[in-house]
Amino acid sequence: MTQSRQSQVSLTDTPYYHCISRYVRRVYLCVCHYVESLSPRIAC
């Protein structure tokens, strides 16, 4: 059974977790979009 992030990550120890995870996700999506624009056959 999976666990929620709230139970996995302590916000007192890592107060910037939410911001960093959003930033990483956004960069990943931008890179995927860029790679797919270069060659539509490549998928992320």
Describe this structure in words.
This protein is mostly helical and 44 residues long. The chain has a domain at 15-44. It is built from 2 helices and no strands. The longest helix is centred in the middle third of the chain and has 22 residues, at 17-38. The two termini are 27 Å apart. The mean pLDDT is 81.
Beta-strand percentage range: under 5%
**SSE arrangement, N to C:** HH
Instruction: Work out the helicity level.
Output: 55-70%
What is the alpha-carbon Rg in Å?
Answer: 15 Å
Distance between the termini: 27 Å
Largest sheet: none
Structural class of the helices, strands and pairings? mainly alpha
| Number of helical elements | 2
Average of pLDDT = 81
Instruction: State the low-pLDDT regions, or none.
Output: none
Give the oligomeric state of the chains in this entry, treating copies of one chain as homo and distinct chains as hetero: single chain
- Number-wise, the strands total 0
* Anisotropy-based shape: elongated
